[in-house]
Amino acid sequence: MSIHHKEHRNKPEYHTPIYEMALAQFEQAADRLDLDPNLRKRFIAPKRAIMVNIPIRMDDSSVEVFHGYRVHHDTTLGPSKGGIRFHPDVTLGEVSALAMWMTWKCALMGLPFGGAKGGVRCDPHALTRNELQRLTRRYTAEIVQFIGPEMDVPAPDIGTNEQIMAWMMDTYSQLKGYSIPGIVTGKPINIGGSLGRTEATGRGVVYCILEAIQHLKMQVEGCKIVIQGFGNVGYHTARILYEKGCCVLAVSDIKSGLYNANGLNIPMLKQYIEKHTHMKGFPEGDEISNADLLELSCDVLVPAALSEQITCENAERISCKILAEAANGPTTLEADKILQDKGLFLIPDVLANAGGVTVSYFEWVQGLQNFFWKEVEINERLHDIVTLAFQNVLRLALSEKVDMRLAALMLSVRKITEAKLARGLFP
Length: 427
What we know:
Rossmann fold; 46% helix
């Protein structure tokens, strides 16, 4: 047997390239903190990883079996928390990496959660509404022993939405015998969801961008923005920045992108997409590929799609002043070094897109208390938490002379390390 095959055999199933990336980021922070080897071992593997088969009857009466996952990375600070994604490329390694990033994100924001993530390998767009509902309910039933308001609280992610969360909440409640709205966040308002949750991730991205603009002494008015991705996060980021007077040069979805040197009319584009279901053919913009979009000259580049979009292949051609990672893991380790040498100001994913989990925390608290807050209160609290976290990361980055990603991870790892030491090791 070759050395390569021996090494592969000795690695756990979740050690995929994206997990290796998350692990390498952690190792950099651990090295900088001179973390005790015994503690380091406790961070590098998920606390719990669940794989399930999900058989469902399709509308044509055939049975399809889908593969589902739920990973709890850490529960030192409280219940684990993280989204559920429905996507054809979902793997155990991807879910494990995302769970690790959620651990850092929750600690950085000061939330009483650990990190989790879940997913089902499927194409939700290829399923009918009934098939999607059966898939969601069976997946929930398969992981029911590992989720709960005090144990693990799912939320929406790529390919899922508030309707999926409503089905999860109803399934869990039916199995337990009474209504439990606190089992998921990102639910519809009428069954215990929180005001401001839908746009929370995008709003958090905007708060971080505004802080970075102020730090770099740039102007908000006319600031040139490029956004890869026009789903929930990309759209709300674009909309709020547009309303603040920024010039959104380009946006894209899975199929195509749009570019307008004078700026896109975001409300008009949204209306077009609602009518045509895609942005292709929008009259007030030229078509552009996702690859070319990333390389446009701009003030702020916002990757808000999938992971590993900025790599050693295109990093040299990235031409922005601020890179705000609205997606999870959009920049590879090799690209990180290139961008750092170019002098870009990085807002790392664990900071930039943490608005979603922050308002999910608000929703969870409101559900436990059965006492609901006004939207203005939610946005104010979100602003306070995000800007405080940004300033904490910036302060450490400047004092330690490290980039913002490393500073964010150092703060998170240090906080959880202190908590682990206080709690001790069972048994």
